[in-house]
Design a protein that fits this description.
Blueprint lengths: L2 H5 L7 E5 L19 E9 L2 E8 H7 L1 H10 L11 H18 L4 E4 L19 E11 L2 E9 L4 H5 L11 H8 L5 H11 L5
Antiparallel strand pairs: 1-2, 2-3, 4-5, 5-6
The structure holds zinc ion (2 copies).
Length: 202
């Protein structure tokens, strides 16, 4: 081999699956430590100091970005002898995560009103298109049974609606629930909506 060939940088694979070389790396999905020896997946990004891997637990990556994990499996980005979880198991995890997310989406959460047609169920005034609305749940009696259904309200109407008798969203833990459930909404925007809602009476 010539010197020239030795100096040539090997091209970095877009993914790398390997046992964690130390217990110092943190999973970029759940922010918890990846134990030494635990199989992790690196997703290549080009940062200000050049390319490098962002590490994730295999399960965390599967839950959040299965397509990338599948690509990594197709490319077989691990060394011989590295133990990797079967892709079928990771697919099941991803499916479950999707389902959980869909269920969590019920209430309370905030989202941008896609049209200006819906009215606030608390005050009856329209909710402007493009503004944030808050989804709460309200109990409705139907055929002798009370069922909870989602309702849209203005952020400014949330506190009064939470105090209403037929509201089935709990005031307790409301702020945390809103933050957790409002997936896909920038945290700064959620914080602004919470500010608009004002303090929740305990
Ligand atoms: Zn993780
Ligand atoms: Zn309102």
């Amino acid at each position: 081999m010539t010197d020239e060939a030795n100096r040539e940088q090997p091209e970095m694979s877009p993914y790398l699956i390997e046992p964690a070389r130390s217990g110092r790396s943190k999973c970029k999905t759940c922010r918890r430590v990846i134990q030494k020896g635990h199989t992790r997946i690196g997703i290549l990004i080009v940062g200000p100091f050049g390319p490098g891997y962002l590490w994730h637990h295999m399960k965390c990556a599967a839950r959040r970005q299965l397509a990338k994990v599948e690509e990594a499996y197709e490319m077989k980005v691990w060394a011989d002898g590295v133990e990797i979880p079967p892709i079928e198991k990771l697919r099941v995890l991803a499916e479950k995560a999707e389902k959980d997310k869909a269920e969590r989406k019920t209430a309370p959460h905030t989202e941008i009103a896609p049209t200006g047609r819906a009215k606030c169920k608390h005050c009856g005034e329209p909710i402007a298109k493009g503004s944030y609305r808050v989804i709460l749940s309200r109990g409705v009696e139907f055929a002798g049974q009370v069922r909870s259904g989602p309702i849209n309200v203005h952020p400014g109407c949330v506190v009064r609606e939470l105090m209403a008798e037929d509201c089935t969203t709990e005031p307790e833990g409301f702020e945390d629930a809103l933050r957790t459930n409002s997936t896909g909404i920038p945290p700064d925007d959620v914080a602004r909506v919470l500010e608009e809602i004002g303090p929740i009476p305990g």
